[in-house]
Amino acid sequence: MRKSCCCKHKQAHLALWSCVANVPSHPQPSLSHSNMSESAKPHHLTPQGKGEKTHGSDFSYVGIDAILEQMRRKAMKQGFELNIMVVGQSGLGKSTLMNTLFKSKVSRKSVQPNPEERIPKTIEIKSISHDIEEKGVRMKLTVIDTPGFGDQINNENCWQPIMKFINDQYEAYLQEEVNINRKKRIPDSRVHCCIYFIPPTGHCLRPLDVEFMRRLSKVVNIVPVIAKADTLTLEERDDFKETIREELRANGIDVYPQKEFDEDADDRKINDKIREMIPFAVVGSDQEYQVNGKKILGRKTKWGTIEVENIAHCEFAYLRDLLIRTHMENIKDITGSIHYETYRVRRLNESNGHFVSRWGLSRRGELA
Amino acid sequence: MASTEIARQAGEGARAVPLAGHVGFDSMPDQLVNKSVNHGFCFNILCVGETGLGKSTLMDTLFNTKFEGEPTQHNQPGVTLKSNTYELQESNVRLKLTVVNTVGFGDQINKEDSYKSIVEFIDAQFEAYLQEELKIKRTLHSYHDTRIHACLYFIAPTGHSLKSLDLVTMKKLDSKVNIIPIVAKSDAISKSELAKFKIKITSELVSNGVQIYQFPTDDESVAEINSTMNSHLPFAVVGSTEEVKIGNKMVKARQYPWGTVQVENENHCDFVKLREMLIRVNMEDLREQTHTRHYELYRRCKLEEMGFKDTDPDSKPFSLQETYEAKRNEFMGELQKKEEEMRQMFVQRVKEKEAELKEAEKELHEKFDRLKKLHQDEKKKVEDKKKSLDDELNMFKQKKTAAELLHNQAQQAGGSTTLKRDKERKNV
């Protein structure tokens, strides 16, 4: 389909991500990225008054673009759903990062305060839902935590419970979709995005990481991040990232944003910039400190304060922008139309699916 | 080996959590809208009405473009539906508009089956979507949705009441599509008559249980305008693509010797209201209703017809697999039965043919025998005749030799007399 010229949103994205190119690896005056809620606002709907046209002398205006406003209203009324899974060894700061991302206590630890910090003997999958609202937009956020992953001595097949969980969500959605009496809006519990935490060793990916990402990149969108990145200097960080990217490429692991799902040249440009930066080196914190008179989230150490949202310090802001502000819809789209469809094809094929297609054909014969 | 322990606390236990700062997901509606803009929209309108009510003109007026070249031919025997697709663009919104017209509706002498082709058409669109949804490898994302989102029903401006054809057709269509009734060519009715006409129409629709599309009133921003518009149904419209100079502007209007009817003047007709409701306020809702209500109803009926159930009598949900297995066995059984039948029939036919052929062979043999016998009889007769002829010949020969002998004897005895006789004969 031909693209029309004015796509302000995409251009804004491009502007956002092209700032990246200007930040070299050496310390520079900080650019603050806190409030980037750009929006391509269509014109407001004005109900027609008495007879005359409201758009000046443009009497050939039909009003088709009012559908954008209608869609927006419908979306605001319905609310959104997002399911994020965090995977990584214990102690890598997964729960803290979740709290930092959504600026509230959404992590498992905040919900069920454990009397003692224990490492579970087996992998558990705990999912907690929250209703959050911002400027009239309601979202049901589900954070799925996987305590116990990678913590045993023998970690063989530790990805299996996770894969099973993801496939179970697809299965539940499929069952509801195939029902005769189905709900108006099928509740979406499919995992949209899986954030994988890589420990900041500074060398290379561990076999566990490679194995896990290789298997799961086929069923879910994986966003790898380097956890606790404040233990790496900037040069070490760049080297580490380069090594990781190389290893991902060598093993054929396709992390989000996947190259094959780029829709057009604009998308590819934006996503290429992102691909050059993954995995993001993040630092999480839910404590506020005073820096230069402002209260900001950070980690205070004896040698300085690491500002979480400062892109010269760490890449948390990029992660947040990617996940929430620019690519959230795209992530959900890829989950729904590609990963879910792949699962559905496989599932229908294995359970005498060929009968379904034959059934369809014979029905067409009946109808005709 | 790690095993699983799943603890789920979602769904009913979702807590409302306050945010300590700006997260940024308020851009979600924008992301959604922009995705849709890139993808494009599609909208399908069906115009049902008798010939000459101005359906094509109204479509032209609504969307400000000249859609069709020439008016359609009206010489088809039944009701046919013609559909045309157009790509419109306004600012950054691309719309794929499909306008379906009924040709020949109400033209027949016997109009009992007029609604059938319309219902079939609507069902065919639902069926196409259902088939696509049920495919194994499906591409719903790029599927061109042809389901009818809105049906504009054109009512003739008689001023009295609805025709029975209108009632019957609307009753058949109201569970399949969003019906918006409009009074066409309403410049033929005076204002007071129009008010009475509208009341009569609405009461007839209500008393016959026809469910027309009600503009939604659950969203506060549009509830007020929608509810006022609901009370103005059916809209009385006038369509025109010709422009007339009024004051110092060119407006769309119809010019009469006694005055000019301006299309976009709310005092003259309800065209502006129709455009407002159909396009600017409720287009998305029309699409949603079509998908969630009408299509789901169709799908449910179709699947139940096929024998699929959600739960069996013991109210245990059927698994996908079991249903398909059962269906498959049934299907295979039927197939086998059919095969058997066909085989039987085939064997039967072969036997019949064989018998026929045997008959024919026998006949031929008989004929052959008969002919042979005939031939032999004839031969015998001929031989008999030959024998008798031979006998005669022999007798004749005998007689001849006997005669000659006698002759010779006579000659010798009376040689002279024969000479004398010969001389006498010579002289005579």
TrEMBL record, chain A:
Residue spans of biased composition, Polar residues class: 28-38
Pfam hit, one: Septin
Residues of the Septin-type G domain: 78-350
SUPFAM superfamilies (UniProt xref): P-loop containing nucleoside triphosphate hydrolases (SSF52540)
Alphabetically ordered keywords of this record: Cell cycle, Cell division, Cytoplasm, Cytoskeleton, GTP-binding, Nucleotide-binding
PROSITE patterns: G_SEPTIN
InterPro entries per the UniProt record, alphabetical: G_SEPTIN_dom (IPR030379), P-loop_NTPase (IPR027417), Septin (IPR016491)
Chain positions covered by the region annotation Disordered: 27-56
Compartments where found: Cytoplasm, Cytoskeleton
CDD domains, sorted: CDC_Septin
UniProt GO BP: cell division
GO CC term, one of those recorded: cytoskeleton
UniProt GO MF annotations: GTP binding
Transmembrane residue ranges: none
Similarity section: Belongs to the TRAFAC class TrmE-Era-EngA-EngB-Septin-like GTPase superfamily. Septin GTPase family.
Record-given protein name: Septin
Automatic annotation (TrEMBL), chain B:
PROSITE patterns named in the record: G_SEPTIN
Stated name of the protein: Septin
Domain Septin-type G: 39-305
Composition-biased stretches (Polar residues): 408-418
Annotated signal peptide: none
Gene3D superfamilies to which the protein is assigned, alphabetical: P-loop containing nucleotide triphosphate hydrolases
UniProt keyword Metal-binding present: no
Domain of life: Eukaryota
Residue ranges of coiled coil: 321-399
Family stated for the protein in its record: Belongs to the TRAFAC class TrmE-Era-EngA-EngB-Septin-like GTPase superfamily. Septin GTPase family.
Biased composition (Basic and acidic residues): 419-428
Region (Disordered): 408-428
The entry's keywords: Coiled coil, GTP-binding, Nucleotide-binding
Annotated source species: Gasterosteus aculeatus aculeatus
